[in-house]
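Here is a complete protein record:
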Amino acid sequence: MSSLNSYKGIIIVKLKLAVRRVFYLVFLIPAVASIFFGGLVLGEVLKKPERELNMMPFDFSEKFKVPTGTMTIIGLQKEYSNSKPIEISITVSDPLFDCGDLYITIFDVSKVPKEVVTQSGFFDQCFEKNDLIMPIDDDFSELIDIPGLYEIVSEINNKTYKKSLTASERFIVK
């Protein structure tokens, strides 16, 4: 019986050694080799200072391209009394824009994060054909009665919402 136990013990020891060899062969040697060869490749790349690594080789959609036109806020004063309404108009000069949805938002910038005081939307503003001032067939007029520092943001989006123009300015209500 003792020779049988001794035989089982030898098999267990051989099995443990085989497991260790498999661990080294399957896990440890490839990891060390990857670090070694990766270091060699990185070292060769860093030897060439004129080499440029392009980490973002993707083509971004139309939404992220810089707009070519401009948007201007007309009629905004730097200071208003709390009894005088804010009345503005918008002009857009962009050969690629002809119609869009116009949004005008007033933020209270004295609060963190900025808080929306009022927002107006003017839809289907087709301005390029007649070089019109927006909002077309409507007026933007808002009364703010709480003194403070405010920011007005106007944004127009094209019909597919892939392109937009934005303009913003700050003013004070006393």
Observations:
- The first helix runs from residue 2 to 46.
- DSSP finds one helix and eight strands in the chain.
- Confidence is low (pLDDT under 50) at residues 61-67.
- Helices lie at 2-46.
